[in-house]
Amino acid sequence: MALRFYNTLTQTTEPFSPAQDNTVRMYTCGPTVWNFVHIGNLRTFTSQDILRRWLQYRNYGLQHVMNITDVDDRIIQQAVAAGQSIYDYTDIYTKAFFEDTGKVRLQRPEIVSKATDHINEMVALIQGLAENGCTYESEGSTYFRIAKFPEYGKLAHLHFEGMQSGARVDTDKYEKDDARDFVLWKARKEGEHFWDTPLGPGRPGWHIECSAMAMKYLGETLDIHAGGVDLIFPHHENEIAQSEACTHKPFARFWLHTEHLMVEGETMSKSKGNFYTLRDLFEKGYSPEAVRYLLTSVPYRKQLNFTFDGLRSAATAIERLRNFELRLKTTKFPDGDNPAFDERTAKALAQFEEALDDDLNTAEALGAVFEYIRDANTAIDNGDFKTANRQNADSFLQKFDQVFDVLKPTVSEHALSDADIDALVAERTAAKKAKNFKRSDEIRQTLADQNVILEDTKEGTRWKRK
RNA sequence: GGCGCGGUAGCCAAGUGGUAAGGCAGAGGUCUGCAAAACCUUUAUUCGUCGGUUCGACUCCGAUCCGCGCCUCCA
């Protein structure tokens, strides 16, 4: 079956292909840069990375825009507290974001756009909405009038018929006609960063940046819009309202939402003491690959229970994958070809691709890979794996890694070089030959201290980094 | 209260009408100078509970218990 995704808008799984040409126009809600990225954020971004990679694997071009929210209440508050401008303050966390996500090998979107660089576009969009009679002004702020958009609630599947206007307590500091109305442009407040615009001095509301930037770079209708489940309402619902009320065209064809993660079975929160940034995990000694693997091993639409036990399991699972890769590379196979085994490889690849085509079922894809590895190991043991089978096997493994990207270890800059290791291994082999096991074990230990593991095989000694 | 998601082995988790993938941990074995590493085998008569439909249900229907999320600025 062809590629398909679950669409929050229709609540069904639908076949996917881009609307125009071969390029997927995709927008994902990026970070609010007021702090370091935490593992909850990262789960969403990692799932989007898998989405990116799978679209590319399926030979689609990609035009992916991710925003950086660099102005909002928290940022203003934190910047003031730190005695910095919002630009200086957010710059720190924007850089940290790419540094951190780079470590877990997230691809950088084709376009990264900052909210503060697109004030003009936002103002223009709000003006367009004003022309359509969808806005009103109150105490210097501009609001979107929900009553003008009857389809409001279609993404979150909320029904407001029974709700009385103003029935809810309005906790917002600004004056609104209807509790559901949301602010497009916030009036300037004393001591806050502001922009002078035709809408008056102030700053953008939360939702408008995404509509403005998405449509600027991708056109009025996106193929995919993605984010965390918590953004479905109100953020994405409001994006739809303000975009479609302006263009009268569907804002996005597919809405993909990543479920949240739990930590040790509990919701992650600072008060519970189970709040972790990616940097926290690195400090505890966990590898970027292990984090990446754990985060991707559970399909994106399922809640993921993040545990340290799971993180260790992930690291061991990666070892198994790497061991197979190493075995494939270093073993001398019997000459010839075994068509039956090539068929086995083809089957594994088909299962792998079908799993990811099915709304990115990463768990099933991994199952296909591990099952294959077991069969391949058995075939190698039995001599059923021939020299000519190596190419397809290796190609399958590389295709797997094109998506999951965990095979290559992250090597620190202080680590021994490959040449140093090779030299020590050669010395040990000589020592072993001379039955100088004392020296041989000494070298093994030296390398072990550098996180290099030696394996003695029929074809000699091979090594790997841990 | 409304809407949505989920409860499968010690842990993580796929499957969703034809008789339980995979990973980790555990147990056994192969290999090896010992060791390490690696590899192989094995581990759920059973899928929250109770009913129903069916030749047959983890998979469909009803009820029920439990967990999680959203219902205005949180990925």
Give the topology.
Elements lengths: L3 E4 L4 E4 L7 E6 L10 H19 L3 E8 L4 H10 L3 H18 L7 E4 L4 H13 L3 E4 L2 E4 L37 E6 L14 E3 L3 H11 L3 E7 L3 H16 L4 E7 L2 E3 L2 E2 L10 H6 L4 H10 L6 E3 L1 H23 L8 H19 L4 H21 L7 H15 L13 H16 L3 H13 L2 E6 L2 E6 L1
Parallel strand pairs: 3-4, 3-10, 4-5, 10-11, 12-14
Antiparallel strand pairs: 1-2, 6-7, 7-8, 8-9, 12-13, 15-16
The chain binds one RNA strand of 75 nucleotides through helix 1, helix 6, helix 9, helix 11 and helix 14.
**Any idea of the CATH topology of the largest domain?**
Rossmann fold
What's the structural domain tally? 3
The mean pLDDT is: 91
SSE string = EEEHEHHEHEEEEHEHEEEHHEHHHHHHEE
**Number of separate helices:** 14
Percent helix: 40-55%
The CATH architecture assignment of the largest domain turns out to be 3-Layer(aba) Sandwich
What do we call the CATH homologous superfamily of the largest domain? Answer: HUPs
The dominant shape is: elongated
What profile does the largest beta sheet have? 5 strands, parallel
Strand content: 15-25%
- SSE class: alpha/beta
How widely separated are the two ends? 39 Å
Low-confidence stretches: 162-174
How big is the Rg? 27 Å
Q: Please give the number of β-strands.
A: 16
Strand order, main sheet: write it out: 5-4-3-10-11
Q: At the first level of CATH, what is the class of the largest domain?
A: Alpha Beta
